[in-house]
Structures are given as structure tokens and as C-alpha cells.
Amino acid sequence: MQTWAKRGLQTAFVTGGLLMLGTGIASAQENVDPDAAPPAVDVAAAVPIKADQNKLATPVREVTLPKVDRTISTDRVTGVVPTRTAAPVANPLVRQTGERLQGTPLQNVVRGNTIQAHVDVPINICGNAIAVLANTQATGDCTQTTHRDGTIVTDGAGQALAGNVVAVNHILPVQITGNAIAAGGNATTDTDARQVSTTGGDITTNGDKGAISGNVIAEHGATPVQITGNGVGAAGIAEAASTADTFASSEGDVLTSGKSSSISGNAVPVALAPLAEVNGNAAAAAGNATTDSVQAGTAYAGGKTDTNGDPATLAGNVVAPALSGPVTVDDNAAAAGGNATAVSETTNESVAGGIIHTFGDGSTASGNIAGAPIALPTSAGGNGASIVGNALTDHANESYSKSGGEAYTVGDHSVLSGNIADVPPATAIDVCGNGATLAGQAAGTCENDVKSITSGYQGTTGTDSVISGNIASTPVATPAEVYGLAATLGGQATGSADEVKEVRSSGTPNTEDDHGTVSSNIVTAPTAAAPQVFAVTAGLVGNTFSDTSNDTTVKAGNNPHATGKKGSVAGNIVQVPTSTPAQVFADGVTLVGNNVTKGDNATDMKAGGDAITTGEKGSIAGNAVSAPVATGTQVLGWSVGGGSNVDAFSTNSLSSVAGGDVNSNGDQGAVSGNLIGAQPAVLPAVPGNTVAAAGITNSDVVSDTKVISGDDSYTSADDASVSGNLVHVPANAFAGVYADAVAVAGNATTVTDKSSYTQAGGEMLTEGSGPLTAREMTVPVEAAAKLARIPVEVVGQAVTEGADNDTQLTGEDAGVLRATQLKGLELPKGVDSLLKANQVPAFHGLDSKLPVNKLPNPADLTALTGQLPIAGLPTSGLPTSKLPTSKLPLAQERSSLPLNGGTGSITPNVQGLPLAQVLQAAQGLIPAGATGRSLPSLPVTAPALPVPVQLPALPTERSLPTLPVNGPASLSGVNLNPTQGLAPKADERALPQLPLNNPALAMIDPANLFQTVTGSL
Fold it and tell me: What are the C-alpha distances in Å from 553 to residues 504, 601, 650?
């Protein structure tokens, strides 16, 4: 580096006032007493620079850039910052002043208060190659190691305004290695680089029996930056092979105390450990760029925090923000009129903060904890994009991020103490394995394994206290990502990804008290969400392909636990957990082209958990309000094509659970142990639909979903007042539009096997004695509607196949779980098979074609035992040897089938089937002039009907009653309405009717509609 530049930077530091603030300008080799008290002010900055093996080529010549191994520092360190741990270096001015004050009345003027700010920026530049209208090649093997100690030990016990610490220990290493840039030439590099940068240390002080003493504000930061293994070719050729490893650490615990003090022992630890990376990318414009890179990054910041506010006032409190997570742009390829290929592996670990421990016994406004840990790993990797070119990627990413940790405190015998407030969002943002092209080829391939975790267990107590031991927590776990997509306009695009992801926020909130007042209450709102779009393809005059799998686990919060025995407004729980996935995957849309998308999904989501509390012998204690919300929004397995071939294949397993059991106890209490809940479970199901216009589309889906909101509730209230009551509103809604096919001058086929389970609430149990005690009230709300397996054909062929099994459980729904489908009339399939004027539906168990010139085979009647009124059938002419075991009375004369409403000896109703009304409705179908004998009479001597007779299917166990024929809808002249007049059995709630005559459904072909309604609606 030029001498003038170095001197300029040094001058800037000095003129910035750092020297006058006590900056230690001394050699690191200076002898310093390690037991000496820390300086009052210690501010230092260093920029160690190491540059080596870099190449630059121009038409004039190729040069190797000068080697640099120097440090620009306010410490005047002439080389790399020493790797050994050194004692803090005091400014000579400060040290001399302190020596002169010894033995004078002013010797304690500093009182152990310390301001320390250390910022180091190590820079490693190695193995880069730059070619401009020329060729060059670089190789590099470089290592940089730096360290600065930031340990602080001071004391303010028994003093006022003593032992306070403000500290910054920050390391920001920068690694720029193994990059190749070619402009009108060739640039090649092969580099192996390592960088290790550490700082920090424990901060120890004390404020016991002090006033405004022993307080700590400390930042520990490790924020490495990597720019490695990139290749850029502009009318040239760039090739980069690189390995890069960065380790950055600013670790250290914060240890202090504020026992028997005022405004002492408080701590604000700030831990920062994000990484920033731009590695292994390839960009080509009218040229070629190729990268093959392996990079690793590690950042550790902060540590545990331990303090005490027992007994004290405004002491031992902790406020702890933390941030972790790499932000990476790795292994992407972009080409414009060229070729770009990127292959890379990335491994990152980021940890910020740790366990928090404090006390607030016998205190006022002490021992409280406020945490705000954030884990935010963000990556864009393995994506390929091209314009009239080729872009290919192959990327593997492994990332672990953690912020914060467990929190413990105590608020017994105190006021406004031992409370915990926690805001711990955990997320993961990924754009991975996508391919997009315009008149070219692009392929994005990605393997992604990510963990993002924040906070942990939270425990406190509030015995014999006031407004103490309470917990407020808002855990948020939300991965948000787009991966495995492919899009093209006049080209070919591939997007493929294999992802495993775990996102967890917070843990169990646990608090206890006896004889507390407004204490040990919990308010928590855990949120689990998953906005994810993957394995989606779209093309316009092109070909697209995706093969993507997803394995995601999302968990927010855990089981809240509280006690409020013998308390007042104590031990209450308010829990509002939400689990709301929003996933779009395995869908393909193409206009003129070929499209194949394959998506496999396994998602497990949980928000909150079982809420357990007690309010025995308490007043307004041990109550619980639980309002979980669980949904299962997914759009999957759609294939839509125009003049194209589109195939969509998907498997799906989703579990979305919010809340759980709620247990309490209000024995001998007043307004205690009451449980109030609202538990909506909503499942919109839209898998496996397909649309073909002058093309061929196929959808093949296997889907299994589980959506659960809340569960059982138990409480008791013996010898209590206004206690142990249960009030619940379980709401269960299922809506499905799936397995439908639309063909317009094309072929559309869907094969969809779907199972779903939705549960809202559960059993309720309470018992007890006393006024307004142990009462139950539940208001279940349930709705279900489907439009499934509907083929719509306009000069085309639409095929719908598969099966479904949909189950709803709402509140205390007893017995076998009821399937949502309606059961009843089963009409023949196909437009040409509609009932003719001389046909009636057939019974299950009989041959579909019932000849009337002989009785049916008795063996066929055994399945109808207890359903068909066999005793009323005429048996004249039937050989006795053919009779069933139960004897049938012989008719003395044949029974006619009159037109006046009579039915002869036939019982007019079969398990709710109004047969008389069916026959009466058929009267209007008889040609004019028909007499009372126009229809053939039973039994065997009557002529056969011109066409087979089909009778309606008998209902099965737990089916809804069969449908009357007096509705307004008509089919081939027979009045039929499959929903009008539907009524539940005594032990079932009614399902809503589908308004088939609604204008919105007016355009649906009745034949196809009835074909799919059967056993599905």
C-alpha cells in the first residue's frame, strides 16, 4: 500500500478524536500488568490487510500485484494483530494519570467504570485473476489469522456509580479470494483460502449493595463477509476453482450482580452473528463463465448472561437482542448470449446469544427479562437464468442458525419482578433451484438443508408477589421460500430442489405461584406459517421440467403451564396459536410446449400446545382462554395446457395443528378454573384439477391432510363459585374443488386419491358444586361442500378417477367419525345413461336389470335383510324350495302397480325412501290415454318392462337419509333434487345443502354433476 494512503488513514483515526478518548496507541509488545484495573476509556480499531498471489493482465503486460501484509491500526501494530491473548493496552496518558492519582483523594474518581470499543476489520485478498484483452492465471494458498482480547474485569460493589461497563467487541473479517474476471480475454484461478478472526471475552463486574453500579451494555459482534470463487466472463472466458473458509468469533459471557442495590446489576447484551456471502456465482455476457467452489462460514457472538436483583430495586434486569443467520448469494448462473455454469457447496453456522439467568426475589421491578432473538437465514442459490444463452447450476447448501436461549428468573415475594417478555421470530428465506430462460436454456438445481431456531424454555415464579412471574411471548416460526420453479419463453427451463427445513421459535412457558396477585399469568400467541411455492412450472412456446421435494417442520411455542393457587388474578392463561400453511406446488401451466412437474411434500406444523393451569382456592385464577386457528391451504397437482402436453404428479402429507388440550382446576375458588375456547379448523382442498385446450393434460395426486384446532377440555370446581365452567365454539369448515377435468378439443385426465381429517375442539368434561359452577355450553359449527370429479367436455374427452375419504370431527361428535360426503341417490353415469321416462332407479343388492317376468334370485335379497319389506312382496308362482329361510306369505292374486298412488302390497317406504312419491312422480310420464293398467303388474305373470328397472341405492350405516323426488330440479322428466329436504338422523347434525339451481351453477351439465355428486358431496 502506498505510504501516503497509510498515513492518511492513520491521520483520519487520530483526528477523529480517538486519541483524546484514551485510545491505546502502543505496541502490542509493550509490557502491561495483566492484573491492572482496566482503563476508563479504551477505544481501538484495526484493519489488518493481507494481499497475495493476485494477477492482472492487460494487452501491455501481465503482472502479479504487490504483496501486502500490514495492519492499519490505532494501536500502531506493525503486523497482523497478535494471535495470542494479550491484556488490554491502556493509553499511556490514562495510565500515567491513574498512577499520579494513587494515594490522593481523587484516586477513586473512575470507580471502575469502563468504556471499551474494539472494532477490527481483517481483509484477505488472495488468488484473484483479472484479464482485460489478455490472458492470466492465478493460484493462491493463503491464510489470515487475527485476534484481539476484549476481556473486562471490574467492580462496583458497595459504591455508587461504580463498576459500570459499556463495551463493543466487533470483528468484521472480509475475504475476497479466488475470483476470476475476464473482459475480452481469459482469466483462470485456483485458490484455497482460510481466515480466522476472533475477539471478545467475558465481561465481569458487580453492583451489589451499590447504586447505579455494575450495569453492563455490551455488544459482541461477528459479521464476516465472503466474496469468493466467482467467475465473470464478458466477451471472454472466466474459470474459478475455489475453496474458502471463514471463522469469526466474538464470544463472551456477561456476569454481574445487583443484590441489595438500586438500579444496579442490569445487563443489555447485544449479540450479532450474521454472515454475508457472495460466492461461486457465474455470469457470462457473450462469453463463458465456469465456477467450482466450496465455501464455509462460521460466526459466534455473545454467550450467557447471569445477573441478580435479589433483593433490590430496578436491579438485575436483562434486555437481550440477538441476530443470527447467513445472508448468501451463492452458486447462481446468469448468461446473456453466452454460457454460465456454477457448481458449489456452502456450509454456514451462525450462533448469537445464549442462556439468560437472573433473580428478582424480594425485589421491586427487578429480575425481569426481555428477549428479542432473531434467526434469519436468507439464501439465493442454485438459480439459473439466461437470455439467448445457457445457464446451469448445481448447488448444495447447509445452514444452521440459532439466536438466544433459555431464560430463567424468579419473582417470589416481590413487586413487578421476575416477569419475562419474549419476541423470538425464527424464519428462513430461500430462493433456490429455479430456472428461467428467454430463447435459451436454464437449469437450477439445489439441495437445501436449513435449521433456524430462536429462544427456548422460559421459566419464572411469582409466589407471594404482586404483578410478578408473568410471561408474555409471541413466538413466530415462518419459512418463506420459492424453489424448484421453471419458466420459459421460447426455450427450455428446469428447476429442481431437494429441501429439508426446520424452523422453531421459543419453547415452553412455565410459571408458578402461591398467594400471588396478578402474578404467574401467561399470554402467548405462537404463530406457525409456511408460505412456500415450489415445483411450479410455466412455459410459453417452450419446455419446462421440475422434480422437487419438500420436508418442512415448523414449530412455534410449546405447552404453556401456569399455577395460581390461592392467588388473585393469578395463573391464568391466554393462548392464541395459529398454524396456517400456504403452499402452492406441483402445478404446471404451458401454452404450446411440453411440461412435466413432480412435487413431493411432507410438512409438519405445530403452534402452541396443551395449556395446563390451576386456580385452586383462588380468585379469578387458573382460567384459560384458548383460541387456536388451524388451516391447510394448498394448491397442488394442477395441470393446465393449451396446444401442449402437461403432466403434474404430486404426493402430499400435511399436518397443521394449533393448540391442544386445556386443563384447569377451580376447586374452592371464585371465578376460577373456567375454560373459554373458540377453535376454527378450515381446510380448503383444491388438488388435482386439470384443463386441456387442444392439448393433453394429466394430473396424478395422492394427498393426505390433517388439520386440528384445539382438543379436549377438562376442569373441575368443587365447593366453588362461578368456576369450572366450559364455553366452547368449535367451527369446522371443509370446502373442496378437486379432481375435476375440463377438456376443450383435447384430453384432460385426473387421478386423485385424497384423504383429509379436520378436527375442531374435542370432548368437554367438568364437574363440581357451587353456584354457577361446572356448567357446559358448546356451539358447534360445521360446514362442508365439494365439487369433485366433474368432467366437462366440449368436443373433448375428460376423465376423472380416484377416491376420497374426508372426515370431520366437531366438538363432542360421538360415535364413528362422520364422512363429509352425502349418501343417497346413485344415478347412472354418462349423458347417454340418464334415466329414461320408463326407468326408475335400482336398489343396491339387486341386479341393475330387474326382469319383472320372474322374481329376483332370493340370494340377492339376503343383503337387504331388514331394509327391503320382503314380507310384502307377492310370491305367487315361486317354488317353495326357492324360498328364503324366513317364510314369505303367498299372494292370492297378483298385485298391480296402479297409477293412483297405491302400491298394492308393497310397503310405501324403504328406510326413508318415499317410494310412493317416486311412483306418483312417474305417473306423469305415462303416455296420453294410458289407463290404470298401463304399467305392468307384479308378479311373474306380468310382461317385462321395455327397459331394465333401476331402483335407488339403499343407504348405508350413518348415511344421511335418502332423497325425496318432490324437488324442483328435473331430469328426463323425473323430478329429482338430491339435496332438497335433506334431514339428519337423530344423532347427527345436518350438513349444508348445495344449491344446484343457483345461477352460479347453471352452466354445469346435470349429467356430469350427478355423476360426481354420488358419494362425494
Answer: 8, 11, 19
**832 CB contacts (<8 Å, ≥6 apart)?**
none
Instruction: State the residue for C-alpha cell 396443551.
Output: 610
In which element (H, E) is residue 860 found? helix 858-861
Question: How high is the pLDDT of residue 879?
Answer: 38
Q: Which residue has the cell 459479521?
A: 223
Residues 6+ apart with CB under 8 A from 97: none
Main-chain dihedrals φ then ψ at residue 10, nearest 5 degrees: -65, -40
Query: What is the DSSP pairing of strand 629-631 with strand 573-575?
Result: unpaired
Q: Report phi then psi at 603, rounded to 5.
A: -125, 130
Residue 327: how many CB atoms within 10 A of its CB? 18
User: Residue 1008: helix, strand or coil by DSSP?
Assistant: helix
What does pTM read for this prediction? 0.77
**CA–CA dist 892, 914 (Å, integer):** 26
Burial of 795 (0-12, 13-18, 19+ CB in 10 A): exposed
**CB neighbours of residue 150 within 10 Å:** 27
Reported as a pLDDT band with limits 50, 70 and 90, residue 850 is very low
Q: How far is residue 117's CA from residue 551's CA, in Å, rounded to a whole number? A: 44
CB 693 within 8 A of CB 744: yes
Helix (H) or strand (E) holding 919: helix 915-923
In eight-state DSSP terms, residue 4 is: H
What band does 39 get if pLDDT is binned at 50, 70 and 90?
Answer: confident
- 8 Å CB contact between 782 and 991: yes
* Separation of CA 549 from chain center: 15
Task: State residue 516's pLDDT score.
Answer: 94
Q: What are the φ and ψ backbone dihedral angles of 1007, each rounded to 5 degrees?
A: -60, -50
CA angle (847 as vertex; 844, 851 as ends), nearest 5:
130
Cell, residue 1005: 351439465
Query: What tens digit of pLDDT does each residue of 606-660 get?
Result: 999 999 999 999 999 999 999 999 999 999 999 999 999 999 999 999 999 999 9
The answer to whether 972 touches 863, Cβ cutoff 8 Å, is no
55-57 and 62-64 strand pairing: antiparallel
Average pLDDT, the chain: 81
pLDDT (tens digit, 9 = 90+) per residue, 707-739?
999 999 999 999 999 999 999 999 999 999 999
- And the C-alpha cell for 283? 455470469
As a whole number of angstroms, the distance between CA 814 and CA 824 comes to 22
On whether the CB atoms of residues 284 and 340 are closer than 8 A, the answer is yes
For 203-331, list the strands marked E by DSSP. 203-204, 216-222, 225-228, 231-234, 237-251, 254-255, 267-279, 282-285, 288-302, 305-306, 318-330
Grouping H, G, I as helix, E, B as strand and the rest as coil, residue 426 is: strand
First-to-last alpha carbon distance for the chain, in angstroms, is: 79
Q: Which of 189, 184, 282, 186 is nearest to 231 (CA)?
A: 282
Pick from 378, 538, 356, 369: which is nearest to 450 by CA?
378
- Distance between CA atoms of residues 201 and 490, nearest Å: 59
Task: Tell me the three cell numbers of residue 897.
Answer: 302397480
User: Quick one: cell of 710?
Assistant: 384445539
Torsion angle (degrees, nearest 10) of CA 885, 886, 892, 896: -100
The whole-angstrom separation of Cα 871 and Cα 888 is 6
> In this structure, are strands 527-556 and 611-612 parallel, antiparallel, or unpaired?
unpaired
- Determine the Cα–Cα distance for residues 70 and 375; give it in Å rounded to an integer: 36
Question: What does the DSSP assignment read for 375-412?
Answer: E--EEEES-EEEESSEEEEEEEEEEEEEE---EE---T
